[in-house]
Specification:
CATH architecture: Alpha-Beta Complex
Largest sheet: 5 strands, mixed
Distance between the termini: 38 Å
Number of strands: 8
CATH superfamily: Nucleoside Triphosphate Pyrophosphohydrolase
Oligomer: single chain
Number of helices: 5
CATH topology: Nucleoside Triphosphate Pyrophosphohydrolase
Length: 182
C-alpha cells in the first residue's frame, strides 16, 4: 500500500484549507496516515481513509446528495478506499456505483475538502473515524439517476436547501466553497 500519493494530496491541500478547523483536520489526517500503514483498509481499527465526491451541476446551483441508508442522513456520495491509494478513483467509483452517473467532469484533481468524522457502531462494526478526501465533480443533472442499495434516495438539491437536509458544518463548508467559486 502506497500512502505517498495520499500524503502528497493532503499536504498540498492543507495550506489552502477554507478555515482553521478544516486545516486542523488536514493535519490530523496527515498524522493518521503517517502513523497507520493500513490506513487504506477497513480493518484499520481506529479508522480509515475514504474518498467522496461533491457533485455539482454545470450552473453551480445544485449538488447531488444521497440519503444514506445506514447513517440515515443526506450526504455526498463516497466510500471506503479498500486498499486503493488513488482516492480520486475511489470517489469516482463510488459516484458511479451510488448514482448511476457516467458523464462526469473532474473540476480539479486537487482535494476540494477534507473531513474527519465519527461513524457510530453498527451491527458487527465498532465505531471508528472516517478520514475523508473530497473531490469536486461536475455532472449533467439531466442524466438519469439510479438509486443503489446503499441509499434511500438521490436528489439534486439547491445550495440554499442543503442546511435543511444536513446542517453539519462539513456540508455547509462545501456549499460555501462552491458558491464562492462562482
Amino acid at each position: 500500500m502506497h500512502r505517498t500519493a495520499v500524503l502528497r494530496l493532503l499536504r498540498a491541500h492543507q495550506p489552502s484549507a477554507a478555515d482553521p478547523h478544516e486545516a486542523a483536520m488536514a493535519v490530523e489526517i496527515i498524522r493518521f496516515v503517517e502513523a497507520h500503514p493500513d490506513c487504506l483498509l477497513r480493518t484499520c481499527a481506529p479508522g480509515h481513509l475514504t474518498g467522496s465526491a461533491w457533485i455539482v451541476d454545470a450552473p453551480r446551483r445544485r449538488v447531488l446528495l444521497t440519503h444514506h441508508r445506514k447513517l440515515d442522513t443526506w450526504l455526498q456520495p463516497g466510500g471506503h478506499a479498500d486498499g486503493d491509494s488513488d482516492l480520486l478513483a475511489v470517489a469516482l467509483r463510488e459516484v458511479r456505483e451510488e448514482t448511476g452517473l457516467v458523464r462526469l467532469r473532474l473540476v480539479s484533481s486537487a482535494v476540494f475538502d477534507v473531513d474527519r468524522h465519527w461513524i457510530p457502531p453498527q451491527r458487527d462494526t465498532p465505531g471508528h473515524w472516517h478520514h475523508d478526501l473530497r473531490f469536486l465533480i461536475e455532472a449533467d443533472a439531466a442524466e438519469p439517476l439510479v438509486i443503489s442499495h446503499e441509499s434511500h434516495d438521490l436528489a439534486w438539491v439547491e445550495f440554499a436547501r442543503v442546511p435543511a437536509l444536513n446542517p453539519e458544518e462539513s456540508m455547509l463548508r462545501m456549499v460555501r466553497k462552491t458558491v464562492g467559486r462562482g
